[in-house]
Design brief:
Order of helices and strands: HHHH
Number of helices: 4
Distance between the termini: 53 Å
Largest sheet: none
Helix content: over 70%
Number of strands: 0
Radius of gyration: 21 Å
Structural class: mainly alpha
């Protein structure tokens, strides 16, 4: 675990999200936008590199692993080129 200071922009976005509790009719529309802003600000902050791996889903990991496996299996053939 690592801790770093929170900048004003991230704090403002978090407060906007909390303030939505006062306007329930706006939550469905605005909350996803504010959450996206918070994620953006977290990734741009000091801990961004540590957090970025959390955004890749398990399915993304499987697809990436399959692609890497295919590259490894076929690399020699691709290097030789067409016959």
């Amino acid at each position: 675990m690592n801790v770093s200071p929170t900048d004003a922009d991230l704090l403002d976005a978090a407060l906007k999200l909390i303030r939505l509790l006062d306007t329930p009719d706006e939550i469905n529309f605005l909350a996803p936008l504010i959450i996206r802003e918070i994620i953006y600000r977290l990734l741009r902050g000091e801990q961004g590199a540590r957090l970025s791996h959390l955004l890749i889903s398990e399915e993304d990991n499987r697809r990436i692993s399959r692609a890497v496996e295919q590259l490894r299996e076929n690399l020699d053939r691709w290097r030789r080129g067409p016959k």
